[in-house]
UniProtKB/TrEMBL annotation:
The keyword Hydrolase applies. PANTHER family: CARBOXY-TERMINAL PROCESSING PROTEASE CTPA, TAIL-SPECIFIC PROTEASE. It comes from the Bacteria. Signal peptide: none annotated. This is S41 family peptidase. GO terms for cellular component: outer membrane-bounded periplasmic space. Residues 177-358 form the Tail specific protease domain. InterPro entries: ClpP/crotonase-like_dom_sf, PDZ, PDZ_sf, Peptidase_S41A, Tail-specific_protease.
Length: 528
């Protein structure tokens, strides 16, 4: 990849960031401070120039600048970060909610690009590409037997909207190579942030949000309206493992539940300027019962939504204490495609609490804090959650809520009903399961041909075939994990993944939520 000489704008930004860190230590006059800042800027610029022009060996000064920026931002807070060009494109697509490509989910299986499932109504599906097909060539570019990186594969399949690519595929079910007769036109492929919206019973709707991207509110609104039309009177919003994203999307969703002029969130910048955001009259679900599911990986925008619901006494928060991120970032782009995300404000829930957890011990300690929750027992017992009495706040109805480190749920649900199950659950939620299921389907896809979903469920419930095969799969891959004590959990996740690859994402949740502890807690109907 060509490297552009962009060190000057990066250094300017980096120097400004350095000024933020050092400013409180400067006790000179305003003019002296300005001279000092300019002196620091000049020093950094001159140093890079000296290295670029005089150093005995050739040095990529751009990489030096990147390290400098990382080190400077490392002195701020854990969420002020530099994003290099190689990562920024993917991050931008993820947050935009779409990209341009051919529309396939794939898996590198035995050094071949194997199709797990074409995106429904996408270009590949319309052209006749099927699950299990191997893509051998994209135009004249060979995609198999080369150990290509993900970036190389994506660059071959992505492109400008309307551009064409001719795929040469191997269809295993026919045992022969086929050249797609009609060239596939690349098109906009949605990256959904709402995984599922479905009814759990005759009146309880469920919506799973995996992140807050540009399209999240529109996806959520569509799902909510669909559920209301088929009878939803109460709603479960699942924010588990949702690391956040655009706070504006979370605010719009909160507005659907809150009455006009109720406070949703407010921010405060370094100058003390406060910006408050209130609900409007447009909410479509201001009367129904609301539950929000959170866990230790629910962060940022997820916590804004949960905090707005909790602090306005609008609904019930179910699960475990959230991550604890109460900082707001602004993204600043550079000409080479990289960006800096700089923390520019703190946000506060309607009662006035900051849920930002401490980060004075450094980034490593900060991000590992969630791991300590295993050790102190708070993932198993609500009484083990440490709260600070000095950060106690009251909702309009007098309920006590706490600041200082995440949203504490109203109804606590432990990570597993029995200690030890959590390791199995983490395994079953990993990519290992998806790979195993694909290989099983690839070896005998005909075993499921023509089955409607109910028939599929009966078939999976009545056999241990795939449970036993999965244990052998783990052993073969040197994963020394014995599954016999957690057989029912393993079978449920295997069944759910088969459902996902055969029928789609919604069916994964139809299976997995049946025995979900948090869902069960809500459906007991005894939550205050």
């Amino acid at each position: 990849m060509k490297v552009n000489k962009i060190y000057l704008p990066i250094l300017i930004c980096a120097t400004l960031a350095l000024g933020v860190v050092l400013g409180k230590y400067l006790k000179a006059s305003e003019n002296d401070s300005l001279i000092a800042k300019n002196s620091s800027k000049n020093k950094l610029n001159k140093l890079i120039d000296f290295i670029d022009n005089e150093y005995v060996d050739d040095v990529n000064t751009d990489s030096i600048v990147n390290v400098t920026v990382d080190n400077i931002l490392g002195q701020l807070d854990p969420h002020s970060v530099y994003v290099p060009p190689s990562e920024q494109t993917q991050v931008a697509e993820n947050m935009k909610g779409n990209f341009v490509g051919i529309g396939v989910n794939f898996y590198m299986y035995k050094d071949s690009l194997a199709i797990i499932k074409p995106v429904e109504n996408g270009p590949s599906a319309r052209a006749g590409i099927k699950a299990g097909d191997r893509i051998l060539f994209a135009d004249k570019t060979k995609l198999y037997g080369r150990q290509l990186s993900s970036d190389s594969l994506f660059s071959s399949l992505k492109g400008k909207q309307g551009s064409e690519v001719e795929l040469t595929i191997y269809r295993k079910s026919l045992g022969k190579k086929i050249k797609v007769k009609i060239k596939i036109k690349r098109d906009v492929i949605p990256l959904k942030s709402v995984d599922a919206s479905l009814l759990l019973d005759y009146s309880t709707g469920y919506i799973k949000i995996n992140r807050f991207a540009e399209t999240t509110f529109a996806e959520f609104k569509s799902g909510l309206q669909k559920l209301q039309k088929i009878g939803a009177k109460s709603l479960i919003i699942d924010l588990r493992d949702n690391g956040g994203g655009y706070m504006e999307e979370a605010i719009e969703i909160a507005d659907e539940f809150l009455k006009d002029k109720q406070l949703i969130v407010f921010t405060k910048d370094k100058k003390g300027k406060v910006a408050k955001t209130f609900a409007t009259k447009k909410g479509d679900f201001e009367a129904g019962t609301v539950f929000v599911l959170i866990n230790e990986n629910s962060a940022s925008a997820s916590e804004i939504l949960a905090g707005a619901i909790q602090d306005n006494d609008r609904g019930t928060i179910v699960g475990r204490r959230s991550f604890g991120k109460g900082l707001v970032q602004r993204e600043m782009d550079f000409d080479d495609g990289s960006a800096v995300r700089l923390t520019v404000a703190r946000y506060y829930t309607p009662t006035g609490r900051s849920i930002q957890k401490p980060y004075s011990k450094g980034n490593e300690s900060y991000f590992k804090e969630s791991e300590t929750r295993f050790l102190n027992g708070e993932l198993y017992e609500k009484d083990s959650i440490k709260v600070v009495d000095s950060l106690k706040f009251r909702t309009p109805k007098g309920r006590i809520v706490y600041g200082g480190g995440g949203i504490v749920p109203d109804v606590f649900v432990p990570i597993a009903t029995e200690h030890g199950n959590e390791n199995t659950v983490y395994l079953m939620q990993s990519g290992v399961v998806g790979n195993f299921v694909f290989e099983q389907l690839d070896s005998n896809r005909n075993a499921f041909t023509g089955l409607i979903f109910k028939q599929f469920e009966v078939k999976m419930d009545q056999t241990d075939l795939y449970f036993n095969a999965f244990q052998k799969f783990l052993d073969k891959n040197n994963l020394n994990i014995k599954l016999s004590k957690n057989k029912e959990i393993v079978k449920r996740y295997l069944k759910a993944e088969f459902a996902r690859q055969l029928y789609g994402e919604t069916y994964y949740y139809k299976v997995i939520l049946v025995d979900d502890a948090m869902i069960k807690a809500v459906l007991k109907k005894n939550i205050p």
